[in-house]
# Entry
Amino acid sequence: MSNRKPLMAGNWKMFKTPAETQAFLEAFAPLVAATTHCDVAVFPPLVNLAAAVAAAQGSNIGVGAQNLYWGKEGAFTGEVSGHMLQAAGCSYVIIGHSERRQYFGETDATVLRRTQAAIEYGLIPVVCVGEKLEDREGGRTDAVLAEQFDGGLAPLTAEQFATVVIAYEPVWAIGTGKTATPEMAADAHKFIRGKVAEKFGAEQAAATRILYGGSVKPDNVKSLMAQEDIDGALVGGASLEPKSFASIVNF
Ligand code: PGA
# Structure
């Protein structure tokens, strides 16, 4: 066991209203109130952040957003800044999720800018990397992960990088019910940790949390978490229901 404290993160994507957010947290908070072995956070849509922060107050549940823009404020219609997220009570933000990369033109260069902005405003960035099915089948998994790391994270200073959480999410495993085998995930995590060591040193690599994401469910979380290099989960579908997410958190 490493001394990295796991993080169990619920990525709600575009699901739930403010009232549903409040109802979720009222049911979920007691189920994880005694949880100390990991950090717990939910990532609701922007319009629900105020409800989530209010409902999570006094609990051990952190709240994060699913994206941010890198400016502080300005004429950027439709965008929200790290400054605003922090002021709204967020402590985390997901950056570079594969759905953002696939549908909204996110690139490694914009991942870098968003990550820098998150750190500047005191948010913990959860930066997503992962290969597509054709990359895996073509034997390019490591090359893709290296490219995403080199473009999105390696240019950070060591001080900036210290707060980063990485989420390895093989794109072919997201929302498909196909989980990477624990061994496949472990290999990718080990490779990513090696990249962190190369760039930021062995001590930082030993401290960096690397989450696995992609069809994590109550019945597969334990075998994933048994892998030395897996430090938590980024959970989509199975984080939408309080009992299901609680049983993942308390695996
Ligand atoms: P999933 O999503 O758990 O529904 O596969 C994970 C994610 O996209 O973060």
Observations:
- The two ends are 15 Å apart (CA to CA).
- The domain at 7-249 is CATH 3.20.20.70 (TIM Barrel).
